[in-house]
Amino acid sequence: MQHLHIVQGGIENGDKGRLERASGTRTWMRSWIVPKSVRRGDDVIIHVGKFGLFATAVIASPPIKRSDWRNRYGAAIEKIRLIEPPVSLAAVKRFVPDVTWARYPRSITTPSRKVAVKLLLLIERRRKQKCPEAIDRQFIQEANLDELRAIALLRSRTRLLGQSSKAVQYARSEAIRLYVLTRAKGKCEGCGKPAPFVNREGRPYIEPHHVTRVADGGPDHPSRVIGLCPNCHQRAHHSIDRKEFNRKLRARLVRLDHPWRKSG
Fold first, then answer.
1. 216 inside domain
2. Among 22, 102, 150, 186, who pairs with 204 as Cys (CB 3.0-4.6 Å)?
3. 124 and 151, same structural domain?
4. SS3 labels along 168-234
5. 207 within 8 A of 230, measured Cβ to Cβ
């Protein structure tokens, strides 16, 4: 096995979007910030902010000192593959506790070979299962947006996770709730105004609302649940224009949740 390095990618600077577009293609990405010690053919895991371990790639050129960034080196990367859903730092800390970098993931690092093997096995398992390795309450509270959605979409995969149907149903329900609240980013997805207050958990208070009620045959699915302020939530249930309002909310959800994770 070649050496493994963990490098950083951003969101606002466009790294995340470029990784998504390059995944599975022959595209090279030039001058990625890497450790000085990298060699052509080394493996890299790319960490992206709140998502966690987001993609893997291979070093495609020798490192060259960056003229625009003091004491930093850049190298081209190729063979980019997304990790879907990305592995949150909560998952890394639970399943590969030897990765001390996960406590303060602000820099590039080169883990030991022993730790590298564990990380690659975790990523391989994630790619195979397409869902997190844990669905207990503690993990759900720390999971990233993509992991929450994957848990929310679980149906008949209890054997894979070794969990009872009751445990999976609870996990799905909680994941849908947290997914919607996380996606809303503290604002009502109906009127766009900030949440009216912060709740006892320290989160902006937003209420999940099924735009098509489960009791009426609507799917219990994250793309059918929207985050509303209390005023919009009551309007969706009790106002004279509630049917039209819910129709508008359903149309808005198409934009909010379809493509649910791609970004520039």
1. yes
2. 186
3. no
4. HHHHHHHHHHHHHHHHHCCECCCCCCECCCECCCCCECCEEEECCCHHHCCCCCHHHEEEECHHHHH
5. yes
Distance CA 88, CA 97 (A): 13
Q: Please give the biggest Cα pair distance in the chain.
A: 66
User: How large is the angle between the packed helices 145-152 and 165-184, nearest 10 degrees?
Assistant: 140
**In terms of domains, do 204 and 250 share one?**
yes
What DSSP element (H or E) covers 238? helix 230-238
Does residue 17 sit within a domain? yes
Same domain, yes or no, for 12 and 121? yes
Q: Distance (Å, rounded) from C-alpha 225 to C-alpha 244?
A: 16
Question: What tokens does 7 get?
Answer: 């490098």
pTM above 0.70? yes
C-alpha–C-alpha distance, residues 84 and 104, integer Å: 23
Q: How far apart are CA 50 and CA 133, in angstroms?
A: 18
Mean pLDDT of the chain: 89
Domain housing 40: 4-130
The predicted structure's pLDDT at residue 216: 41
Q: State the total domains in the chain.
A: 2
Query: Hey, what's the torsion of the CAs at 143, 148, 152, 155, to 10 degrees?
Result: -60
**Residue 227 in domain:** yes
